[in-house]
Amino acid sequence: MSTTNYIGKPTSRVDGPAKVTGTATYAAEYSVANMAYGYVVSSPIAKGKITKIHAEEVLALPGVVQVFSHENVPSLAWFDRSYKDDVAPGGSPFRALHDADIKFSQQPVALIVAETFELARYAASVLRVEYQQEDHETSLETQRAKGYEPGAGKTGFQPPPAPRGNPDKAWEEAPHRMEAEYVHGAQHHNPMELFSTTVEWRGEGKITAYDKTQGVMNVQQYLTKIFGLKKDDCRVVNEYMGGGFGSGLRPQYSAYLAVLAALELKRSVRLTLTREQMFSFGHRPHTLQYLKLAANADGTLAALQHHALHETSQFEDYTENVVNWSGMLYQCENVKLGYQIAKLDMYTPLDMRAPGAASGSIGLEIAMDEMAYAAGLDPLEFRLRNYAERDQNVDKPFSSKKLRECYHQGAAKFGWDKRTQAPGSMRNADGKLVGWGVGGGVWDATQQKAAAKASITADGKLTVSSATGENGTGTYTIMSQIAAETLGLPIEAVTFKLGDTDLPESPLQGGSWTAASVGSAVQSTCEALAEKIFKLARKMDDSPLRDAKFEDVEFASGQLRLRADHSQAVVLRDVLQASGEAKLEADSSVMPNMVKQNGYSLHSHNVVFAEVTVDEDLGTVHVTRVVNAIAAGRILNLKTARSQVLGSVVWGLGMALMEETVMDHKFGRYMNHNFAEYHVPVNADIHDIDVLFVEEEDDIVNPLGVKGIGEVGMLGVAAAVANAVFHATGKRVRDLPVMIDKLL
Amino acid sequence: MPQHPTNSAAAGVAAPPATSPVQLSINGQQHTLHIAPWTTLLDALREYLHLTGTKKGCDHGQCGACTVLVDGKRINSCLSLAVMHEGDEITTIEGLGTPENLHPLQQAFVDHDAFQCGYCTPGQICSAQGLINEGHAHTEAEIRELMSGNVCRCGAYVGILNAVKEVVDKGIKN
Predict the structure, then answer these.
(1) Is 0.90 surpassed by the pTM of this model?
(2) Which residue out of A9, A13, A20 would a mutagenesis test of the B interface target, given it has the greatest number of B Cβ atoms within 10 Å?
(3) Quick check: B36 and A642 CB within 8 A?
(4) Which listed CATH number (3.40.50.1010, 2.40.50.100, 3.40.710.10, 1.10.150.120) goes with B104-170?
(5) Which of A322, A536, A663, A688 is the most exposed place for a label (fewest CB within 10 A)?
(6) Which residue from A76, A70, A58 is spatially nearest to A107, judged by alpha carbons?
């Protein structure tokens, strides 16, 4: 019998064959009959009013079906609350084509619908729109004095904890001190798949929206509230998402516009945004951070202050947790954390992979490096001397924390002990400067409520479903693993379905919580099904399990058997066939166990070691080696988890060396809104990356003991690279990305 | 305050071009399409032939997601008009293998977990086949360089390198 133990094993993706053959279906790829094409016209100005839209000129073109704008959009839901999605920040959500006001550059001002894509694109290119332009403000630098503390409007946002100790006095009195400002520009998610929605008109006001989203439930509730649809009449589907990274957490205007057109025209419509338009609906905000650290003579932190200011739109208070992590990653008695946002004439920022923490870890982890140098200490040794045994923000112990093991194992793998401390003291065989840097971070281990359903047929085939998503994270695979192992089935006998509002409710796919939340629901559902199967097995003629209790049996290798005596077994398929039932079903909904979790701080941790080589003449930086050591509880699939962390490192390198969306303040518009000028790492940028998962058992965080790995792996990467650049060159770059001009 | 028209063209918009029949040979099959001459090869594949394995990531030749093989040579199908390819043999990801019968590159991509979301993957695989056909990528550095026209935002480059290297090393031609 083949083994049916899958959890923790490096299992290949069950959706791999579909993805490598092009048969996986993404939002823009559903084939529906009599479909029209939409194309969005975007505003070239950042602020003002639309004064005239010459729609009649393009409506005269044969094949152009309609031009939607604020002039002809029907009366829809009135109150802001109808436009609020599950993760909307405080304020008034943007409503596309609502009125003549322009609030940001690239705001959608019209939607062309035509018989072909080519025609819609052409009509959009020739549509004349006139504007009354007003003065805009898009520079965060000029708004420093206008920063304010936002309310707790967004799910998951925690205002910084109250100060502790006396950080100002401790800083003044300490022997070693540093203070500096750190800056990074705006960044855009840029998933490879363009935002797209195919709306299938099912007649009588009923639609199915195949939408690019990280949450079909979120999109469904958004659309039903705005358009006054019944849930049954508005099915939302996403079986495969070509990358999300946070861009699909909120319903985007593409979904709204495609559904609007389909309902108005009573016809199927497909709308795909352009790559330029992918820079029009949210980004990691341009952030200014001020850090002020002091160390005692023994290398312990005497004081820590971390203040952040980032941009938001005029209409919503976007928030993320930038500074809170600095109060818990290192032991320090004198801490003050501050957080403000400032309004600009741009679209609302949007959670982007490790929102807040990725930004905050740049400030904190470069500052820690600077502090270590000021105190004459090795940067890793400095971190070890300030290891936090408790979460001082909430004064609770960690449910588990193997960060010290990460430090030791990661350093050993990297060869950190061969590092010489002085900047510019290491060179490679080619004579290039070599630098070694370290950074790291901490991320929430969160569990949300989730439900799942399982059904097994007499031929032993198991189908498990939940309305979660797959955007490259491996959801199909890990859920299949959990289900297969729980019921002792080969993974080939398991089908996992997701991304459909007809399935049991699941949370948004974000926050690194899918494995914990949906995984727990899948496990619980399969356990409920196991009990049903067990009851049937006991009733079989001459059942060897007749007198057994549920605790006495296990499901393995397609059998149900006594734990104590594996020869006392029944074949699962035989049980189902003997029962005479065509199929057996179970469902379950799982909530986090608050009673168990309440006394603890639940977090994952990592440390990153990076090696760079720097060409002194050209200022070019290459990241030649990275070791990322992670403590994130139980790892469900070593293969897909490793890929998530490899991808996180690539993201961190992008953040460190190339990614920045540059605003031209004269126009209030991003200049580099395309892949040619918004640089993301390519294959030639990537060299050796090692991923270490440090063993970490945790039975408090959730029943599976998983903490999630989609985000934690990115933390500290950019800082480790920037610190390595300092070590190589002696130049401290505090304004990311580290580009050539900053080193020459 | 200035008036700011987006298009300075006077009223009266030029009519779009008429459609005409275009013959394409794709994965060994002949197709006749009635399309306007400004239809890209990418849109012809995706929107008219429903061969959606070829992906649109930028429509500007900047990401490589739309890579297909034309007479064995890799091209960005978004930068080429369908009408320019009458008489050419076009191979898309659908022509390389099926879920039941994977091409060696497809199998290597699965084995090395050389993708996450899968959206850039068909382009990566077609590009890798083109690279093998070109015959001048042998070292890891060469493969990295010559696969750098295909962006993977999930950052699966380590797996992509290992998958392509494995097939290159085995000397599998196609």
Answers:
(1) yes
(2) A20
(3) no
(4) 1.10.150.120
(5) A688
(6) A70
